[in-house]
Structures are given as structure tokens and as C-alpha cells.
Prior knowledge:
Blueprint: H1 12-30, E1 41-50, E2 56-65, E3 69-74, H2 80-87, E4 91-93, E5 102-104, H3 105-124, E6 129-135, H4 137-152, E7 159-163, H5 171-180, E8 183-189, E9 201-202, E10 211-212, E11 219-222, H6 235-243, H7 247-256, H8 267-276
Parallel strand pairs: 3-6, 6-7, 7-8, 8-11
Antiparallel strand pairs: 1-2, 2-3, 4-5, 9-10
Helix pairs in contact: 1-6, 2-3, 3-4
Amino acid sequence: MKQDNLPEAYSKQDAILMAGFCYQTYPFFDQQQLSLPAGFELRASFKGQAGVTEKSEENFGFIAESADRLVLAFRGSDSTPNLDSDLDLFQIPYPYVKNAGFSHRGITRVYQSLREDVIDLIRRCGDKSLYITGHSLGGDLSILAALDFAVNAARPDAIVYTYAVGRPGDRVFARAYNSQVKNSYRIYNVHDFIPTLPAAEYPPPFTETGLVYEHIDAPVPIGFQLNNLFLNHRINCYFQKLGEQDINYMNALRMDSPGFCPEPVNLTALADSIKNN
């Protein structure tokens, strides 16, 4: 898919790099293993609580630091409690900014459980350029954090790259985010089902007055069709597709930072294999 009319200040190289950070949040959670790009070190990790009726404390991401950058990376869904939070799609008032509308209840509660630690960690790191990134559920957490940071932590300059993120809240919330967070880019695969969730509207009697959800601005569509709902959503496939837009940078990143990038994926061959089996 050709990318025309990209948002101002969007960086293809930053999109590739941040997708690599998103990828790393999963082995960091599953195997307690983390590989960072050359020049970055782990500054801190943080935990949050997921689930609805039964809460589970989990590692939800990390902060990496270089000479001039901080990267706050949130992990996406990788456990049953995460899915429970995803499906708790009723709305509550966004608690940290006045008149900012309503946000997704389950994901907001995950953010509430880790907010204090994350804000404290970021404040300790000084005023380096701040990047906030996340895939899927992690993208929603990135959005909630970026608005909070812009208003309450004096970081309206944060640069946000989300991948495969769903709709985070109602129209008022989306407008509040768009007005406060200016450097934000919502990357999604047009064949990925997850960014279509929650639905734009849940009319009564779902709730007495119904629910409305809306995406934030600055969409960056990409396209890969792997004939599989799971693979169309995978961050390693997003990384590969974005990397093909600047192959020299992707190859240099692989060479200079062993273990940081996902393994190469031949998207065309994979799609054909799944289609023909």
C-alpha cells in the first residue's frame, strides 16, 4: 500500500525503531529477556494490574534511555487477564484531565494501576526527548499516558507511535487527545481486525444511552494481508512491512543491534503459504 499524505513530522525510521521496541515488550514479559538497540540501556520496568473480577499483577513494559532519548514502551495483550480488560469496554470518565470525556473502562483501570510509578520514573529521567509507544492494548495505554503526561507532567512534546490500536474512548476524549498531543501517529494494517474495535457505536439497549467510540487522529495506514487474523495483527509483521519502506535503515538496525529486531518475515511467501494450505 502506497503511503500518501503522511502526517507532518512522521518519521519512517522512528516508526521502524518504535515497532522494534514494541516487539521487545513481549519477550520481556514472556521470557524476561530484553534486547535494546545500540546506544540504549534499560532504565526501569513497571507493573500494572489487569483483569476484571480477578486482578493479576504483570510486567507491562519498560523505559529505555539513550544519550538524548527516553522510550516508554507498553506491552499489548499477552494473557487472559489482559483479554478480560480488553473486553471490559464500558466507559468511565477519563480521570486525569478535566472535561476530557470518557475512556475505555478496562484499559483505563490498567493504566490507573501503573500510572503513579510510570510518571515518577519519567520525571526522574530528566527532560530528554520522550517517545511513547505500544502495540494493541499497549497502544491504548500509550494514548492514555500521553494525554496525562501532556496535561499533568509538562510533556506535551512527547512523540507517540501506536500500532494496531483500537478506539480508546468517546468523541470528547478523542478531541481532547488531539488538541493536547500534537506528535502522535496511529499506524494500522488495513487488514487487521483489532483496530476496528471497540465498534464505533453500541446503541441501546447495550447501555441505557448507548456507547460511542472514536479513533484519535493522524492515521498511518499500511497494508499486508496474511489470510490470518492473528498474523495480520502481529507486531513482527508490522515491523517487517514498515521496514520495507526503508530497507537500508532496517538492515542497518539488524546489523548494529543484534536481537533487537524480530526475525525477518517474507510476507508474500507467508500469505501464499497460508492461502494454499
